[in-house]
Specification:
Largest interface: A-B, 24 and 25 residues
Order of helices and strands of chain B: EEEEEEEEEEE
Largest sheet of chain A: 7 strands, mixed
Helix content of chain B: under 10%
Strand content of chain B: over 45%
Structural class of chain B: mainly beta
Low-confidence stretches of chain B: none
Largest sheet of chain B: 6 strands, mixed
Distance between the termini of chain B: 38 Å
Strand content of chain A: over 45%
Number of helices of chain B: 0
Oligomer: heterodimer
Helix content of chain A: under 10%
Number of helices of chain A: 0
Radius of gyration of chain B: 13 Å
Distance between the termini of chain A: 36 Å
Mean pLDDT of chain B: 93
Shape of chain B: globular
Number of strands of chain B: 11
Number of strands of chain A: 11
Chain lengths: 114, 111
């Protein structure tokens, strides 16, 4: 199993550009999550999904969109990139309700918006 | 008040030391308590998991939960340079789909 994979590893965007961060898991997990991690700020939940076709907002959803058309994939879309979106983005998945089941994290995408 | 508070460190200790990492929380509904370890430029990985109160031991690592004080701890015995990482506490309640993370404590163990 590859686990949770994320692409790209690094990206530099200009202000106002858009991009999609890809996330795929091969563990047949129902739950998937997107976090951002800023220095000294821990992990902040952006969006999550409890199954294909179901998504919900987390703590910091503004400026982002997600979709979940398959169990395996959970892409994160940035529209009109802003410098405040400079961060490291992690995708994670778990078998079922978080807390009761371990979250597995991808290696992260480092995004710089200039 | 933040739901989860964690001392950011950094914490620098010599090899062989006992390390204590701590988190406090305000939500009495939390029942699931975890410690994740994150090496530099990597994703977090689960290190210890505890349900409700009590202690759990795994090799050199011991996790403690004191629900009456809303306080959790991770102890590392005989610390090694390979333990150098950021340690994030995380917790959740039964009726939620989300984990709440602490800000992380950066630990460095020097030879």
């Amino acid at each position: 199993n590859a686990g949770v994979t994320q692409t790209p590893k690094f990206r530099i965007l200009k202000i106002g550009q858009s991009m999609t961060l890809q996330c795929t898991q091969d563990m047949n997990h129902n739950y998937m999550y997107w976090y951002r991690q800023d220095p000294g700020m821990g992990l902040k939940l952006i969006y999550y999904s409890v199954g294909a076709g179901i998504t919900d907002k987390g703590e910091v959803p503004n400026g982002y969109n997600v979709s979940r058309s398959t169990t395996e994939d959970f892409p994160l879309r940035l529209e009109l990139a802003a410098p405040s979106q400079t961060s490291v983005y992690f995708c994670a998945s778990s078998y079922s309700k978080t807390g009761a089941y371990e979250q597995y994290f991808g290696p992260g995408t480092r995004l710089t918006v200039t | 008040q933040k739901e989860v508070e964690q001392d950011p460190g950094p914490l620098s200790v010599p090899e062989g030391a006992i390390v204590s990492l701590n988190c406090t929380y305000s939500n009495s509904a939390f029942q699931y308590f975890m410690w994740y370890r994150q090496y530099s430029r990597k994703g977090p990985e689960l290190l210890m998991y505890t349900y409700s109160s009590g202690n759990k031991e795994d090799g050199r690592f011991t996790a403690q939960v004191d629900k009456s004080s809303k306080y959790i701890s991770l102890f590392i015995r005989d610390s090694q340079p390979s333990d150098s990482a950021t340690y994030l506490c995380a917790m959740s309640s039964y009726n939620t789909d989300k984990l709440i993370f602490g800000t992380g404590t950066r630990l460095q163990v020097f030879p």
